Amino acid sequence: xxxxxxxxxxxxxxxxxxxxxxxxxxxxxxxxxxxxxxxxxxxxxxxxxxxxxxxxxxxxxxxxxxxxxxxxxxxxxxxxxxxxxxxxxxxxxxxxxxxxxxxxxxxxxxxxxxxxxxxxxxxxx
Length: 125
Ligand SMILES: [Zn+2]
What we know:
Layout: E1 18-19, H1 24-31, E2 44-51, E3 57-63, E4 69-74, H2 79-91, E5 106-109, E6 112-115, E7 120-124
Parallel strand pairs: 1-4
Antiparallel strand pairs: 2-3, 3-4, 5-6, 6-7
The structure holds zinc ion (ZN).
Zinc ion binds at residues 97, 99-100, 104, 115, 117-118.
């Protein structure tokens, strides 16, 4: 057997961020615009948000104490959220993120309406 050691980037490095627990409390704090606590002490600074392929958003963060990288997965839009946004699109209303506490406008990316802070698509038009 040829056992080639695959050099995996160490957990917490930019190429291999540590997944944060997707607890309700963590997500609620994120939607409220609060800075999240790092599991290692210190706080997490948001570096950027990516749109996941399956509708899941990825928030890349860095711990300001350890400089380790973390990633928070934002659950994809629910049927209820999508139905609600669809109604608003049809009514020509302004679109806001259904989760963020402060009014966060959805922005158009291709055909999708995305929350720039969630990385989640809440509707299409
Ligand atoms: Zn949002």
